Amino acid sequence: MQSLYIHFPFCESKCHYCDFYSLGQERTRSQDADRFERALHQEVTLCAPLLCAPLKTLFFGGGTPSLTPFESSVRALAPLWKHTQTVESTEWTMEANPSSISLQSLQSFRSYGVNRISMGVQALNPSLLKLLGRVHSPETALESLDTVFQAGYENVSVDLLCGIPGQSEKDIEQALERLTSFPITHLSCYLLTLAPHHSLYRQLPNEDIQLTHLLLVHDWMTAHGFEHYEISNFAKPGKQAQHNLQYWKGESYLGLGPSAHSYDKLAQRRWKNVSSLHQYVQRLLEQNKDVREWTESLTTQQKELEKWMLALRLNEGFPTQWLDSPLRQSRAKLLESDGLLEAHPQFPLRKRLTARGFALSDSIIRSLA
Hints:
- By secondary structure, this protein is α/β, with parallel strands linked by helices.
- The protein has 13 helices and 17 strands.
- The chain has helices spanning 32-47, 70-77, 103-112, 126-132, 138-150, 169-179, 207-223, 242-248, 277-287, 300-313, 326-337, 355-359, 361-368; strands spanning 3-8, 10-11, 23-24, 57-62, 91-96, 116-122, 155-162, 186-191, 227-230, 233-235, 254-256, 261-264, 269-273, 292-297, 318-319, 341-343, 350-353.
């Protein structure tokens, strides 16, 4: 495996809309960080032999990895370097929130090998940040972004949300204008999705407004030199998120930490760690047990569905030879007439989703798979 993901479960505060496994400070105890460090050290010791040398990508996700002290991360990963290494071309990303970084910590992580920061900005309107339960202000977000560049990082991504209740097109335009005034190389824009039982679910904007938001971001970013290379992601030339491309191209990856997923391409098998810090620590430090919650071998039907799902996520699309039945061919023609699918402008034997198709991709995947 050439790619490694490590899940750090701690956050300053748990955002009410977040589906990723994480624990806010109000739910953690002083000893939790120490126990997590020791458990991660043990899992790294057990699993590092699965990795290739050198690593192509390394990703610190969460949670908020930048909350974990630098020295703690170094101690936890110490066994890793007996089996693999990073080189100049390795993309090493760390997720960060604006209120969880300092110039000193960023410089320390950079000296360790981290060379890409993914900053969770989400919005730059104070009322929207309050609605989302974010603990930073617009000013903090912009100051933190400036600190990232002061620390010497040149490959920097920011996260933005659209489709937030009460969010206007002007809110989005102003956020994009301020964020692209920095030399960012990448932007991820996600549509806010909530479970039907969520208190804000009924306040979400309708599908037409959501589509307008997504297309606005597409038009702005592509006009400012970014390629819309994946459903939710925009990059300057050559700055696509290499770690995420490993996922989207169906390559193998190893995930460590509570709730982390792994995939073995050769064996066509995936597994997931337990989504509980308590169980994760207990199994590794006290019970000498496997931390996997489940393992599955992909069926033929799953492989076919995922083939389409992954290909349609990306700007490079799929080869026309995949339209191997009259039904798929007729559906593809209908999608093209609706402006959702098009011939790839660079590769004549491929088709890809349009920007509008990206926004409606879930239903398109089901129609072609």
